[in-house]
UniProtKB/TrEMBL annotation:
Name of protein: Transcriptional regulator
Keyword tags: DNA-binding, Transcription, Transcription regulation
Alphabetized GO MF terms: DNA binding
Record-linked Pfam families: HxlR
InterPro entries tied to this protein: HTH_HxlR (IPR002577), WH-like_DNA-bd_sf (IPR036388), WH_DNA-bd_sf (IPR036390)
Boundaries of every HTH hxlR-type domain copy: 9-107
Length: 148
C-alpha cells in the first residue's frame, strides 16, 4: 500500500485504496458469498492470481478495511470485514446496480428490486447478516434475510 496519496481529494484517496480491478471483488465475495479464507477467495470465478490476492489482502488489512484472524480450523487464517469495511456495502450495491444497467450482465433481480423499494433496509439487512455470521461462522448470505 502506498504511504502518500497523489492529492488530498477524497475521491482520489478512495480510488487509490479501492480502484484496482481486484480489491472490490474481494470485498464483494466477503459481503455476498461469505468468503473469508485465502482458499475461498482463490475459488472466485474471476481467478485472481495468488500473488495479487496476497497483496490485496495485506493492503486491505493495513488500511483497516479487513482484519486478519487466527482460526482453529484447517485454514488457520481468515479475514473479516471491519466496521470500516462494512461501510462499503452501499458502494458495492451501487456498483452492482450500475453495472447491471449498463453492461448487459444480469444481477440478482431480487437485490435490484429491494434497492429500488428499500435501499436502506437492504443495507441494514446485509450489515446485520455479516455481523450475525461473525468471523467464525461464515456462509453465503441468506436471501430471505436481506430481502425481508
Amino acid at each position: 500500500m502506498k504511504s502518500k496519496n497523489r492529492s488530498e481529494c477524497p475521491i482520489n484517496f478512495s480510488l487509490e485504496l479501492l480502484g484496482d480491478k481486484w480489491t472490490m471483488l474481494v470485498i464483494r465475495d466477503m459481503i455476498f458469498e461469505g468468503k473469508f479464507t485465502y482458499k475461498e477467495f482463490l475459488s472466485s470465478k474471476e481467478r485472481i492470481a495468488t500473488n495479487i490476492l496476497s497483496e490485496r489482502l495485506k493492503s486491505l488489512e493495513a488500511c483497516g478495511i479487513i482484519q486478519k484472524l487466527t482460526l482453529k480450523t484447517k485454514a488457520k487464517v481468515g479475514y473479516w470485514l471491519t466496521d470500516k469495511g462494512i461501510e462499503l456495502i452501499p458502494i458495492i450495491l451501487e456498483l452492482g446496480a450500475w453495472g447491471a444497467r449498463h453492461s448487459g450482465y444480469g444481477w440478482e433481480e431480487k437485490i435490484l428490486k429491494k434497492m429500488k423499494s428499500d435501499k436502506r433496509g437492504l443495507i441494514r439487512n446485509l450489515t446485520h447478516d455479516i455481523q450475525r455470521r461473525g468471523p467464525v461462522k461464515h456462509e453465503p448470505i441468506a436471501p430471505e434475510m436481506i430481502l425481508s
